[in-house]
Amino acid sequence: DTGVSQNPRHKITKRGQNVTFRCDPISEHNRLYWYRQTLGQGPEFLTYFQNEAQLEKSRLLSDRFSAERPKGSFSTLEIQRTEQGDSAMYLCASSSPDRNTEAFFGQGTRLTVV
Amino acid sequence: AQTVTQSQPEMSVQEAETVTLSCTYDTSESDYYLFWYKQPPSRQMILVIRQEAYKQQNATENRFSVNFQKAAKSFSLKISDSQLGDAAMYFCAHSQAYSGAGSYQLTFGKGTKLSVIP
Question: CA torsion A67→A40→B91→B45, rounded to 10°?
Fold first, then answer.
């Protein structure tokens, strides 16, 4: 296993379009997190899954955002009706049951809304 | 709510020298974790070092060590014998301590960009 994988690495979309990102965590990791990082800022928490259950969502996650983790494996983050303010790096992280404070991050998906 | 503040947007260090990055945080919890993450350009964020708040002993990982001052809510990172590969953004982060299904979500500072001068 080579770590947390995110696809695509880059996405350019027109305002108003829908986009979906995928995250494949490290295989034995049951916890999965999504973060958003804008230019010059640290990552901000969006949502958290333990196995397939979405247990926590940030108020940053407006109703245009939805995340899923079917079968507790990979996760998808969808943004509907994208806005220019959605332009950011979207990071996925996962952690294992026995070291749940140690999060492993993917390389992120950079979204540009034009 | 927790907040993490990094007051140094940029720092530079001569290769082989020592540099200290500052971080302060605010939390009402007595049990929590603190982290330093490194984000090289165009690469994923990696964990550098972790400190558990209930442990008085400062964490060390090879050339990286922290100065954890719980009363002052200060958590600085010292990098000794700096190497060119240390050049990156460094983020200080906080996580509450949970049990069971609780989220260990991270609250990050804005980061410090470290440059290493050959």
Answer: 50
Q: Which residue of A has its CA nearest to B93?
A: A42
- Taking CA atoms, A53 is separated from A31, A77, A100, B99, in Å, by 10, 14, 16, 16
Burial A99-111 (b: 16+ CB within 10 A, else e): ebbbbbbbbbbbb
Tell me the pLDDT of chain A (114 aa) as tens digits.
579 999 999 999 999 999 999 999 999 899 999 999 999 899 999 999 999 999 888 888 899 999 999 988 999 999 999 999 999 999 999 998 888 788 999 999 999 999
- B55 and A CB contact within 8 Å: no
